[in-house]
Write a sequence for this structure.
């Protein structure tokens, strides 16, 4: 079934204040190409307003239809065909709002007309908001694409989904419950919420309460049972204590130990008698044994004394004999020692004599040598004096030396004299007197001859006149300088008392020579006065001179001059060595002899002691024997001793008997046993007291706790525990049932959705394949296009390019339109400026698809792009 | 000699599985039955009431329980003879010492196995239990009791009759021919909660106020009025119980049958004094199942004192009609199909799936009802 819009007329609608009409719309493709701002989108909006908005409504959207600044009634009139039947609709908003629908069934106005319109076009009348609610506008809402919506790849509204679902009934075999389903599901959800939280599925409300009840009941039960258990334990203790007490009482009353105690006491009496007898026997036996022991001791001591006496006598005799043997040896040794001592004294005096001789000889030798050394020192001093005498002339020569500066000055002065003299001779005026006498010169007569005039000279002429000769001024200066130099020279020579420079230099050379000779002389003096360690003399002439002054050359003593002693030092030394050896030998022999003598004496000492000891022993034994024989019992000893022995044996036997008797009645054991019996009775009595106290305490506890009804409470707690568990099981089961139902409902919905999306996808794939070869569209459960799959890779819609998104949006709409058409719904496609993002190739493919669609349904294409759609075949219209 | 034979009062029983209100009512009824017994004694001219054990439910009851018991007994003009049973066995410092501290002159606690001459020539031989469990026959003590000048010998004991009921080793077993062995004119027994005659002279009286569901025992509690003449024994039950504890096991096939059963039951009892344990089984159509649930939840449970329904064995099978109705709902039908598949698999969660399907069906029906 197709919806065919034939004419659209508007007045007072936004920019169309004056009546404006687009007529001549046909089935198939209608193309309206107009520039921007011509009112194409307004036209689409007017169509939607006429069909979907109630005339009586004054929402903001509707008020926005009024032209700016006018308070008028916007009006839209439509002529359209639905399933071949012609309809005419006029709707006016706000001012004198009205609706008028006329069609094959007649004419309707007001609300009736609105309802007829809804029924005819299949949309829901809902509350209008600020914009068109496409969800409410059914198929046409989706298919009439406003400019701004073209890009959205949106899901259809639920009512449209239902429509599509109905379309697919035959294919999918699925039914969609719609609102009824949602209501049931909401009720189940509400019930479910009484058991589980929505998000995490954790127990809540009833289930939680049941769980808490179980926990609380378990806790109460545990406490009740614990208290009951304590009480029961107290009962058990009480019972046990009572039984113990009655046993004890019986024991104390019957006293099973009484007979034993009596027997024990009787035996104790017997035991005490036996003990007394034992003591007597012990004393008797002890006395007999003492007597026997005393006599035996006496006899033994006597025998021992006799033996000791004999032994001492033997020892004394033996010692005496040996001492006699040793005495001869001692005498001989002593004689040898005396001889040796004499020899030693002789050797000693010989050695002393030799030593004295040697010492004297050595002293004499030393004195001699010193004397010789002192004499040598005197000789050396004489030599030094001779050398020092040589120094005086040399020193004088040295002293006459002219200093070098003086020499230089003298040389310079002489050189100046020569220079000035030469100068005067060269430049002086040569004056010659020839033949005349009596001529004086400066007062002195002048001899004929030639001279050089260098200064003013007065020549007394023989006539009494004077001829004054005056040389040039230069010559006068030179003469003065010459005179000064000669004066300086003469002064120096006079000062140093030399005749001339040559002599001065000669003196200087002589002084240098003398100075060198002096050095040599000093070295010789030093060599002539060397150090002498024997004389404790330092080097140098000074110490030598002092030494000599201190040690004058003494005249040698007379004996010193005697000829050397008869024996030389060497001989004396050999003799001393000889006497030393002799002394040592004599000393060793003397020591040996004394040692031998001492040894011999020492060997005598023990024997002497032995002898003396033996003598002392003999004396003591004799005393002892005297005492023993004086003892009272000694005389009868041979008779009394055997008798005493016999008495002791008899007493011992009697003691043994008494001991056996005493053992048979052990008093200690009997007493111990009696004590044990007493202690047992005492302990029993104490236990009885303890038990009585304990029983009283337990009785008090039982009485106190018994009144608390613990058993009844425990029984109640047990039943509550069971009830709570049962309730939990029941409630859990209810909860699980609801959970299962809820899950099943969700599963059913998902399955249904899948059964619808499948066919939608198949249809859409046919179109999509034309534009994007090999791509498959994927739809969500709400029929929204979510992604396309290309070569196995899924791409989310929002990731695709704008152009592709727009194309997919249009393709999806085409698919829905096709399905709705199959369903027999009034379908028409209005596209407002579509495909603005498409490239030429895609645009051609898309226009082909639109052209194909226009064969099945009316398509109205509003566009401002003349060039893009110029070639497309269709019914062209102008605004 | 005329006396009332009763036992198993089980005072202080907690009834923890019941809601608080029911619990209070049941507890109170147990105390009230003492008054009922006291009045019955006076009414029938019985001077003695012999209680054959288990006066209290536990050996350590709440003080209120003890006080209620004693004060209610002392206001009736008869003598009460209380025997310790296995629930309230006698021991030093135990429950009976507490009772005796409070007991009135007309109450005697028989904690010792010693004969009492309760009337001229009439001797009462008690066999008190001194432990919760004993393997010996507690009535053997009768042999050692002196009853000089006895005209009538009445035994009072608590326990099972040997070779009777349960197999194997049972506690507190009494010789089945104890009355004959001990030359008793009457042996009053307790422990068995229903009335039961063992032989001509031996009786279990049963509990005076029922305290549990026991299939086949519908009658409310009662006591026995016993007349002893030399040679003849007359025993007559007297009703004492307030509440009836009914157990019903109903196979059901459809809602109509179920409704009929419910109506019959309600007609045959006093619903406010009835506790019902209802076990249902059978295969029913889903719609019928829903209707049954509605009857139970919206009506029956409110009429009765207490209702305990066990319907795990009811299989609700949807009819073609049900399925069609469900299928028209699209996704709901789909969900129903999924659940049916699970039920058909008969896996461990099949019962749960069955309940889920029922629930879904209930919701779908409600949806349809609202739509209509």
């Amino acid at each position: 079934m197709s919806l065919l819009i034939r004419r659209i007329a508007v007045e007072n609608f936004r920019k169309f204040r004056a009546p404006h009409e687009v007529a001549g719309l046909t089935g198939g493709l209608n193309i309206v190409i107009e520039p921007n701002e011509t009112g194409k989108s307004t036209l689409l909006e007017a169509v939607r307003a006429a069909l979907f908005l109630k005339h009586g409504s004054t929402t903001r959207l509707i008020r926005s239809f009024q032209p700016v600044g006018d308070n008028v009634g916007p009006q839209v009139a439509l002529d359209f065909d639905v399933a071949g039947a012609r309809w005419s609709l006029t709707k006016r908003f706000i001012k004198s709002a009205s609706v008028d629908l006329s069609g094959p069934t007649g004419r309707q106005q007001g609300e009736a007309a609105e309802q007829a319109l809804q029924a005819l076009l299949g949309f829901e009348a809902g509350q209008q908001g600020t914009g068109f609610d496409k969800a409410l506008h059914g198929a046409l809402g989706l298919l009439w694409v406003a400019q701004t919506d073209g890009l959205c790849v949106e899901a259809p509204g639920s009512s449209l989904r239902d429509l599509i679902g109905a379309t697919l009934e035959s294919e999918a075999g699925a039914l969609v419950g719609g609102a009824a389903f949602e209501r049931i599901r909401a009720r189940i959800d509400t019930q479910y919420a009484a058991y589980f939280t929505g998000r995490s599925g954790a127990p809540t409300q009833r289930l939680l309460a049941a769980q808490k009840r179980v926990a609380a009941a378990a806790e109460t039960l545990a406490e009740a049972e614990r208290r009951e258990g304590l009480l029961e334990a107290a009962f058990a203790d009480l019972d046990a204590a009572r039984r113990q007490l009655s046993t004890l009482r019986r024991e104390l009353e019957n006293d099973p130990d009484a007979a034993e105690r009596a027997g024990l006491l009787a035996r104790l009496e017997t035991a005490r008698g036996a003990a007394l007898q034992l003591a007597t026997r012990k004393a008797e036996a002890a006395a007999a044994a003492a007597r026997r022991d005393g006599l035996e001791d006496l006899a033994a001591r006597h025998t021992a004394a006799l033996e000791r006496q004999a032994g001492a006598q033997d020892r004394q005799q033996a010692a005496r004999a040996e001492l006699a043997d040793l005495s001869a040896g001692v005498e001989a040794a002593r004689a040898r020692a005396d001889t040796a001592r004499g020899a030693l004294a002789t050797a000693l005096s010989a050695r002393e004599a030799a030593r004295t001789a040697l010492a004297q000889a050595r002293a004499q030798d030393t004195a001699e040598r010193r004397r010789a050394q002192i004499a040598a020192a005197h000789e050396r001093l004489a030599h030094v004096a001779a050398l020092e005498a040589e120094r005086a002339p040399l020193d004088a020569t040295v002293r006459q030396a002219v200093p070098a500066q003086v020499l230089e000055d003298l040389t310079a002065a002489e050189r100046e004299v020569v220079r000035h003299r030469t100068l005067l001779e060269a430049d002086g005026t040569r004056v010659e007197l020839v033949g005349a006498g009596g001529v004086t010169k400066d007062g002195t007569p002048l001899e004929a001859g030639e001279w050089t005039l260098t200064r003013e000279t007065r020549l007394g002429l023989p006539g009494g006149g004077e001829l004054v000769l005056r040389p040039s001024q230069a010559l006068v200066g030179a003469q003065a300088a010459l005179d000064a130099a000669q004066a300086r020279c003469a002064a120096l020579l006079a000062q140093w008392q030399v005749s001339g420079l040559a002599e001065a230099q000669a003196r200087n050379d002589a002084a240098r020579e003398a100075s060198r000779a002096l050095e040599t002389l000093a070295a010789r003096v030093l060599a002539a006065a060397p150090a002498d360690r024997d004389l404790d003399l330092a080097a140098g002439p000074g110490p030598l001179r002092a030494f000599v002054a201190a040690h004058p050359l003494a005249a040698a003593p007379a004996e010193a001059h005697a000829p050397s002693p008869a024996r030389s030092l060497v001989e004396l030394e050999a003799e001393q060595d000889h006497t030393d050896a002799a002394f040592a030998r004599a000393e060793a022999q003397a020591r040996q002899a004394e040692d031998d003598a001492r040894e011999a004496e020492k060997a005598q000492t023990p024997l002497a002691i032995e002898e003396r000891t033996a003598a002392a022993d003999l004396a003591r034994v004799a005393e002892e024997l005297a005492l023993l024989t004086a003892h009272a019992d000694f005389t009868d000893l041979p008779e009394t001793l055997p008798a005493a022995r016999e008495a002791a044996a008899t007493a011992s036997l009697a003691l043994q008997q008494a001991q056996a008797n005493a053992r048979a009645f052990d008093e200690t054991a009997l007493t111990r046993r009696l004590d044990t019996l007493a202690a047992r009775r005492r302990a029993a009595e104490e236990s009885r007291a303890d038990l009585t106290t304990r029983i009283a305490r337990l009785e008090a506890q039982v009485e106190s706790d018994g009144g608390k009804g613990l058993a009844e409470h425990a029984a109640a707690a047990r039943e509550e525990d069971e009830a709570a568990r049962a309730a939990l099981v029941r409630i859990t089961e209810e909860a699980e049932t609801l959970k299962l139902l809820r899950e099943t409902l969700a599963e059913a919905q998902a399955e249904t959705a899948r059964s619808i999306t499948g066919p939608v996808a198949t249809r859409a794939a046919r179109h999509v394949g034309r534009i994007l070869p090999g791509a498959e569209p994927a739809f969500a459960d709400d029929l929204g296009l979510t992604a396309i799959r290309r070569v196995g890779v899924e791409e989310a819609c929002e990731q695709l390019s704008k152009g592709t998104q727009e194309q997919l949006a249009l393709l999806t709409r085409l698919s829905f339109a096709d399905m709705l058409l199959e369903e027999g719904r009034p379908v028409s496609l209005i596209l407002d400026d579509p495909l603005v993002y498409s490239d030429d190739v895609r645009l051609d493919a898309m226009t082909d698809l639109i052209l194909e669609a226009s064969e099945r349904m009316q398509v109205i294409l509003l566009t401002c792009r003349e060039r893009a759609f110029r070639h497309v075949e269709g019914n062209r219209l102008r605004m | 000699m005329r006396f009332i034979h009763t036992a198993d009062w089980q005072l202080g029983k907690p009834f923890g599985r019941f809601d608080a209100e029911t619990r209070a009512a049941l507890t109170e009824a147990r105390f009230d039955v003492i008054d009922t017994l006291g009045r019955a004694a006076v009414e029938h001219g019985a001077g003695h009431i012999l209680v054959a054990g288990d006066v209290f439910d536990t050996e350590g009851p709440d003080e209120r329980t003890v006080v209620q018991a004693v004060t209610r007994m002392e206001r009736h003009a008869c003598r009460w003879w209380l025997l310790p049973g296995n629930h309230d066995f006698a021991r030093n410092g135990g429950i009976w010492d507490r009772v005796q501290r409070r007991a009135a002159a007309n109450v005697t606690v028989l904690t010792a196995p010693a004969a009492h001459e309760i009337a001229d020539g009439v001797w009462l031989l008690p066999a008190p239990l001194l432990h919760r469990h004993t393997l010996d026959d507690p009535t053997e003590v009768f042999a050692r009791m002196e009853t000089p000048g006895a005209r009538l010998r009445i035994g009072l004991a608590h326990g099972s009759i040997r070779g009777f009921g349960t197999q194997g080793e049972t506690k507190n077993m009494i010789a089945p021919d104890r009355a004959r062995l001990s030359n008793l004119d009457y042996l009053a027994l307790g422990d068995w909660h229903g009335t039961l005659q063992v032989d001509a002279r031996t009786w279990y009286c049963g509990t005076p106020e029922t305290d549990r569901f026991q299939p086949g025992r519908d009658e409310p509690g009662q006591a026995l009025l016993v007349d002893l003449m030399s040679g003849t024994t007359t025993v007559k039950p007297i009703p004492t119980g307030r509440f009836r504890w009914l157990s019903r096991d109903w196979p059901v096939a459809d809602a109509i049958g179920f409704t009929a059963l419910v109506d019959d039951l309600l007609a045959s009892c006093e619903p406010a004094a009835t506790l019902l344990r209802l076990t249902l089984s059978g295969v029913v159509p889903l719609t019928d199942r829903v209707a049954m649930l509605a009857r139970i939840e919206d009506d029956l449970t409110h009429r009765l004192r207490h209702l305990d329904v066990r319907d795990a064995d009811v299989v609700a099978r949807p009819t073609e009609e049900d399925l069609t109705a469900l299928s028209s709902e699209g996704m709901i039908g789909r969900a129903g199909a999924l659940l049916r598949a699970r039920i058909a698999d008969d896996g461990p969660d099949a019962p749960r799936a069955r309940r889920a399907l029922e629930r879904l069906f209930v919701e779908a029906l409600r949806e349809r009802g609202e739509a209509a």
The mean pLDDT of chain B is 89.
